[in-house]
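ugh finaly. both done.
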Amino acid sequence: MATAKSHVSDVSEDSDSDKYSDTQDAAQVPKKEPCRYYNKAGCKRGGKCEYWHVCKYALQSNCRYGINCKLNHNINGSLNPGADGKHGNRWKPGVPKLTDGRHYQWQLNDGKGWKDIDNDHILEAQYTLPNNKSIKLYNTKYGGVSIDFNRMRVYEKNMRVRRLDDGNTVWNWYCSLSRKWVKYGVKDSKGNPAPVQSYEIERMYQSNPTGSMTFQIGSNFYEIHFKEMQQVGQRKERKVTRRPTYYQKHQGAFLLAVQNLSLNQRPQWQYEGDKGKWHEYKRGPGGCSVSSDDIERSYMQTPSGDMDFTVGTNMYKLDFQAMMQINLHNQGQRNVRRKMV
């Protein structure tokens, strides 16, 4: 792979600005109840069931079986039994793990077996960003190859793609809120702790990737459907995505590969304005303390890190992994992107 160009995803059109909150106008929507079939002999609808797969007596704090109950009691981390409606279903992956010291390896299969993708650290770096839904690889022996990150498939070619790892990848979960991807576990603007952590979701996902997880905010329940990659509340359905934490294989190789993307292009850092228009970071007196080139240098040193800067008297943090600009005073957030121009 000589050249890789990323395609940034179209973010969700959600207009709700409250993190982890779907409570507005909730009284107009019927509240979900525990599934009566799940509480009897097992629900045949599994992950498609519109009711909660939780012990109805546990919700009332009066289950006589206690910890010996065969049904779900963990409201902040409940496991939906999955498509077959049976309890204790566990998924066993068939993808091989790396055992040769590599942390990850991307591969393509053209029908003649799996082959490693060269310089796949570029692909991996783009995959870690939740707002990137696909990437196009140029100058391969197959021509241009476009990969859909969300569905892990190759567009318009009779090929397959997969990502192998050593089993130690740290996965992060994000929810689409107000046209931004927000990592589960992030405190809200008032400093309140999040109702569920990213690692808790990943633990449940590893237990059953076709199941779901339920968590509670006050008297309201929310459910993350792993198969559909959606968070379902009383009023809205939101997209969720799962991306790995970036691990640098070799910084020198990463720098060289990025620098060789194109002799006629250079990376430009931009932030998204209030009306969806993108603006370049520019340093100026009384304005922004960093330029696009300053950000690029910091990014090259630590692609999965962050950097602080000021605009006037306001302090901001630029999170490279989440591709997000954060106001350190009011926790306001804006999408950022790295575009080749």
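ok and the 2nd:
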Amino acid sequence: MPQMAPINWLILFMFFFSMFYLIMNLLYFNFMKNMKNKISFKNNVKNYNKLI
């Protein structure tokens, strides 16, 4: 098994860290959008109930 240079490990680490960062950002923003939509929907229902 050939040994890898430290710079290769650094590149692999940066690549996986950047992929992890992008995936976590996508999941976080999608979750926040879904939560905001649910909250706004609940608020709209409450407002309609008050109007009725």
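summary for the 2nd one i guess: The radius of gyration is 22 Å.
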